[in-house]
What does this fold into?
Amino acid sequence: MTAWDRHVRRALQLRARQQNNLAGRDGSPQGRERGLNSAPKGSFHAFRFMLEGMRSGFPRLGWLVGLVLSAACASPTGPSAEPPTPMTVSLQQAQWQTISDPSPFPLANNETADLVFDFPSTGSMHYLYTPSALAVVRGTVVATVRITTAGPVVFNSLDPITASCSIPAAVRPFFWANDSGNGTYDRWWSNPRSFPLADGSATISVPLLPEFWSSVNGQFGNADSATRYGFAKALLNVTRLGLTFGGGCSFGHGISVRGGTAQFRLTGYAIQ
It folds into this structure.
């Protein structure tokens, strides 16, 4: 075996060990988190080895630098790269909770088992959520909603809509993680996919990928290494699934109505 062959074999062995680290050897959520933590270290050592090979008089290793680094960047490091975790969420009103005024808010099921409430004219609706049957979720959130109005109804955002805060009054999916914590990366909102509040219906489909969700501080899940890690960790520790109502400068600071009435129906919520 030539010296060149030995260098190539060692480079490929390092790459195989890196892939094992990324996958998480035990296949558990904890294993996947260890893989996320270990990825930078493996990439660095593989890169350093190949540079040393080049300095040792093997210029042909240059093509391997690009090959291995490209593969490292393309390697799946988060739960959403794995198969979906299908789940149909029950719409039984007893299993759903709200953050609202009044609280608890009167919820009901109609004759077709939809989850139903009337938007308040005094008070407000902020969050509508249910415990998640799965802690680890992957795939696409699919929520189907319908709003029926009567009269010249206006949906009021508790955060005023201004030139600098122009999010329309809307409903959007969200999930709550890490024991329903209050940290920066514990709540994630569909962004920008939502349904502006008006008479009509919509199915909101949002892949559980970081570029489709933003955090409490409005950072997308792929903004930097900290948000990517926070988003990936949240998907391994989901506590609640649901929807929020808001506008102006916020996604969940609440909605009320005036000038008419409006009924909200949730007709389906699932992970696909």
User: Anything to note?
Assistant: The domain at 87-271 is CATH 2.60.120.260 (Jelly Rolls). The CA atoms of residues 126 and 254 lie 4 Å apart. The radius of gyration is 24 Å.
